[in-house]
What does this fold into?
Amino acid sequence: MSKIKYAIYTGCTPRESTPELLMSTLAVCKKLDIEVVLLDEATCCGASHLQDFDEFLSLVLNARNICYAERLGLDLITLCNTCQLNTAFTKERLDNDSELKAKVNEKLAEVGLEYKGTSKVKHFVYALKDDVGYDVIKEKVEKPLSQFNVASFYGCHNIRPSKLQNISNKTENPYKPTSLDDLVVALGGKAVEYQRKNSCCGFHVDLQAPETAHKLTGNILLDAIDNNADCVITPCPLCHLNMDVKQSHVSKTMGRDVSIPVLHMQQLLGLALGIDPKELGIDKNVTKVTMV
Amino acid sequence: MLKECSLNSVCDKMEITFKVFRFNAETDYLPYYQDFTLEVSEDEVVLDILNRIKWDFDGSFSYRRSCRHGICGSCAIKVNSKAVLACKERVIDLYKIFGSNMTIEPQSKSRVVKDMIIDKKDFWSKYDSVKPYLVSEIDENPATEHLVSPEQYEELHEADTCIQCGCCYYSCPAVEVNENYTGPAALAKAYRFNFDPRDDAKHERLDIVNKLGSGIWDCVKCFECAEACPKGVDPIHKITALHTQTFKEGKAKSNVATRHAVFFKTSINQHGLLDEGLLVAYSEGLGVVKHIPEAISMLKKGKIVMPWNMPKSKNLAEVKKLVKISSTAKF
Ligand code: SF4
Ligand code: SF4
Ligand code: FES
It folds into this structure.
């Protein structure tokens, strides 16, 4: 099999408030022999907020990001659920609306770019699942997670709307997602069954409605805790910010202690692959990761 | 011989255990669940199962249904937390997702009157709050018809097909934790009239739906409503359109939510990337102080980038040019 090579679109968070996500992604890719090119030219995806203000501008900027992956002839891999949503949404709109595509390309032409639609857009989880394969990953496990109950948290923008997301994630069902649980099992861990694994952490109203955000995050963490989880994993840095950084606020709102380690799924994978926790940025998680 | 169903094959029957929520608000202290294991054929919908339970096992089992054609919206319930119209949803499709154990519950357990029947008064009062009707000066003796072109009609993007079933509303997590939130169905209805060329109450409706605490800014963008709607209304798409309409019509007030949205453009123009620290400061204004404890814990972990270290996208001149020539909105 030829070597897998990806254009990685980091988005903003891994370059700012979740540096450990970028570190762990790169460490895992190295270990799995995946070649990566970072799309340093790319901008913010607009995070679904620029989209509330200026939709056309957000389409142009996201199309530009995809152009750089197309230039390399590589698939664009996202590390964040919301980047995935906005990038995939842009691609879907342009690929199915030639008039809109022409309008966007008219702008891109001014800076010497053209959106063609030749690169796929998918989240890192599905790259691992469908391109690398969990069976291959399983063989490379050095430290099986056999003593751990892991609660997989999926977030929203990687599984909904399913009509859009199924283009890249194939069969993930938003009412019964399995990709992360299957990964946990492949790593030798126990996948925790709990109801709120596919619900919303409320990140997008953190500023204007903090109470809403804290309650939604709290409900998830408590559900995981009540089902005996030792840790939570997530594929999204925004969910991670809410679930890891805000635990003291959330505990206050919920009137119950919600302390539990929350890892990026790349960090958990890295640990199982035997990568040094330092290289995975485990020390950068705000909630102490007691399991390493 | 009948062919048993497996997850991927065509089949004639499946054996399914339904765990059914039971509660009578008048007589019961607590709800309970009753199990029914039934042989179900490929062409049965969830309503057939509700009927069989009522007709064959317990005549007191209560649920709403009327049209049996996916148009009255009264039979909406949840199966394994997935909102469904009982008369439209085939059991086999649920079986393909969930396997042979299905929990049948009302749309909202905290609003139950009896079994599957809930009190939807919050749904209806929010619906009423957005002026869910056409407001227009009508000439009593018009000389010509008031035509809506096919292109104008298409702008409604199915918003007019809502059957008020509440599948979206009772799946909405923002509704679950914020009782003031208007919710997806009513907001989609506001869109339906605000994008109708005959309507004259656009601005009034925008004033109603863009209030902080209850309106469009309190949607958490989870897409549960898009997934739940059996009619393809896609309420979150409509909510996004109301956001942009609020700016376009000059109805956006300067507050934490609007500044938050607009700041993305400012920051992309400056760095390509989002300046996360400044985003919070700019959006919150003086309210920024409440984030200090969090900021300290992040700083200790190397999670805050100092202004002088703010990363920038390569080829930034290109980004600035695109922002300049592609912007379509003002604040
Ligand atoms: S996207 Fe918004 S309106 Fe729709 S379910 Fe989520 S919070 Fe509710
Ligand atoms: S928008 Fe869809 S789900 Fe919501 S009430 Fe209308 S038809 Fe039902
Ligand atoms: S009975 Fe009318 S929609 Fe189901």
